[in-house]
Amino acid sequence: MSLIPVTILTGFLGSGKTTLLKRVLSEAHGQKIAVIENEFGEENIDSDILKTESKEQIVQMSNGCICCTIREDLRETLQLLAAKRRKGLVVFDRIIIETTGVADPGPVAQTFFMDDEVAETYLIDSIVTLVDAKHADQQLDTRQEARRQVGFADQIFLSKTDLVSAEAQQALIHRLKHMNPRAPIQAVHFGAVPLAQVLDLRGFNLNAKLDIDPDFLKEEGDHGHDHGHDHGHAHDGCDHDHGHCEHDSHAGHDHAPGEACNHPHHHHHDDDVKSFVYRADRAFDPAKLEDFLGAIVNIYGPKMLRYKGVLNMQGTERKVIFQGVHQLMGSDLGPAWDGAEKRESKMVFIGIDLPQDILRSGLDQCLV
C-alpha cells in the first residue's frame, strides 16, 4: 500500500491558513482529505466548516473529507487515523495538518521521521507557509516562530498583498528569499490557490534537483567570490557598493521600515534565520564528509531548520542527494552525472545563526 502524503500548513496568526484550508476542502478535486488541527486555541475550523457541536475527535464531512482536532500527541492521532482507515471506518487519501499560528513546524515534521509506525504509513509531502504581507515585517522582527516557519517552508504564499505597496511587497520577498532561497514565493488572494500548488509538491523527496532562487545565486556571484555571501554583518545605512540597503533590525533606521528605500527591493533585515549556499567543483571525500556532517548535525542540529544538497562524491558516477531537518539527515544515490553537465556539489543550509565560516571551511576540508 502506498504511503499517505501529508502537507503541513503553517503561518502566523491571521495569515489566512483557515481560508486556504477551506478552499482546498471545498474544491471539487475528488480527493478525500483528512485535516488534523494541531490547535490549542478556541478558534478552530470545525466551528466554521463543520457546523457541528460534536465533541467527537474525528468528524466525517459531507464531501467525504474528515476533520479532527488534536489536543494531545500528534503521533497518537496519526496512528489512530491509520488504524481506522485500515478497518474501513474512515476513508482518506491524504492529510493536511494545520499548525497553530505560533507553532514551530520542526517537531511536527520530525514526527514523521522519528516513529517507525508513522514512517511506514505516511510521507511528508511539503511544508507550506502563509505569510501576511501587511504584518510580516513586524512579525518577523519580533517572533522567532515566524522566522522559523519561513525557514522550514517548501512553498511560501503571501496573503494580503493588496494591503501593501508594490515596493513593500518586493522588499518583503527579498527578505524572505534571504531566509529561504529554496521555497517559491507566490502572492495569493483570499486563499485562491490552484490545488497543484498546495499538494504533491514533493518538498521532502530526495530528488536530484535543488531549486534555489536564481536571483539569490546571482546576487551571491556579484560579490566576486565563489562562496555564498555572508549575511552575518549588519550595516547600518546603505552599502552602495553592492546595491544593498542593509539594516540591523535593532539599529536606528534611516527611514521607516516598509518605507521605500532608493533601491527598495534590497532592503535587508539582519534576521537570525538565514540561508547560505555552498558550491564546490572538486569532489567530496565520502568518509570525511560523513564525519563532518555528522559532527555538525550533532552540535548545531537544533538550529538547522532545513538543508539539502546534490553532491559530487569521489568513487561514484552518480549524484548523491542528501537532506535533513534538525538532527535528522538522510541521503540517497541519485541518477548518474550526465556527460555534458558540470559535476559540482551544491548545498543549501537554512538555520538560526549558523556559523557559516565554520561550515564553509569544514566542507572545504572534506574536498578531495
UniProtKB/TrEMBL annotation:
Key words of the record: Chaperone, Hydrolase, Nucleotide-binding
A Pfam family recorded for this sequence: CobW_C
Residue ranges of every copy of the CobW C-terminal domain listed in the record: 273-367
Assigned protein family: Belongs to the SIMIBI class G3E GTPase family. ZNG1 subfamily.
Protein name: GTP-binding protein
Lineage summary: Bacteria, Pseudomonadati, Pseudomonadota, Betaproteobacteria, Burkholderiales
Positions of region (Disordered): 245-268
Gene3D superfamilies documented for this protein: CobW-like, C-terminal domain (3.30.1220.10), P-loop containing nucleotide triphosphate hydrolases (3.40.50.300)
Known catalytic reactions: GTP + H2O = GDP + phosphate + H(+)
Keyword field contains 4Fe-4S: no
Function, as annotated: Zinc chaperone that directly transfers zinc cofactor to target proteins, thereby activating them. Zinc is transferred from the CXCC motif in the GTPase domain to the zinc binding site in target proteins in a process requiring GTP hydrolysis.
Source organism per UniProt: Comamonas endophytica
Bias kind Basic and acidic residues: ranges: 245-257
